[in-house]
Amino acid sequence: MSANNLLTPDVVLGAMRAPGAAARLAGVRALHVGYPHLLRGLQGPALLQLLEAAAEAVEAASGEAPIVSLDVNGATLGAAADADGVIGPALGKVDLLHANFEEACHISGRAAGSLAEEAATDGELEALVAPLLEAGVGLVAITLGRAGAYVAFGGEGATRRQGGGAFAAAAAGWRPGECVRLPALPVAGEVNANGAGDAFVAGLLAALLWRGTDGEPLTLEQAARVALGSARQRIDPARRESPESVDALCGENVSQGV
Length: 258
What we know:
Largest sheet: 6 strands, mixed
Mean pLDDT: 89
Number of domains: 1
Strand content: 5-15%
CATH class: Alpha Beta
Strand order of the largest sheet: 1-2-3-4-5-6
Helix content: 25-40%
Structural class: alpha/beta
Distance between the termini: 39 Å
CATH architecture: 3-Layer(aba) Sandwich
CATH superfamily: Ribokinase
Shape: globular
Number of helices: 11
């Protein structure tokens, strides 16, 4: 039996509730779960149970509800439009959901073969994210490979459904229903795309928690630029030894850090 099959809410929550864990959780500001379609013990109601209880544990220790993030991978191994209920029950608790274009098509019930990520129109991308936003997800990010990324915010209602906290603070200046589509950043070296999606969502989470010298969060477009910069840092060997600053990626003075 693989380790993936052994990961259950009891295992994760047991570690979070162990003696001394509260002190470590006090500094946590984001809760991330990756690849639920590959984790048999963290699907459907079990995924909902984990996200609810883990977020409560972090909030109790830190004093603020964390950003809850879900990274989709392996969705095409299951039923289209989440007919098998892997993520559906938990979507109302998710602040940030990331999927690549093929995954987004699958979980939205649209055959990826009928679209091409590089040619997808804004309207087609809007249709892909609509059911996820309607289910309660706060922010949906679709990576489009060489075509960049599309990020859509569900609006003020989404931040209220998520219970405020770190996500509401990050989205305080965003417009309800705001969407951003950005092209991929140019690369200098030979590209190795392994881990690009992981780096993108990690960069986006960091961007949501970032505060500038004036204490203000990033705009949605700035956050998307930082996420693309994080992905480029991962896939372009020529840039790995010289990380770009948030200033450089955003084009504005937003230095300071989380």
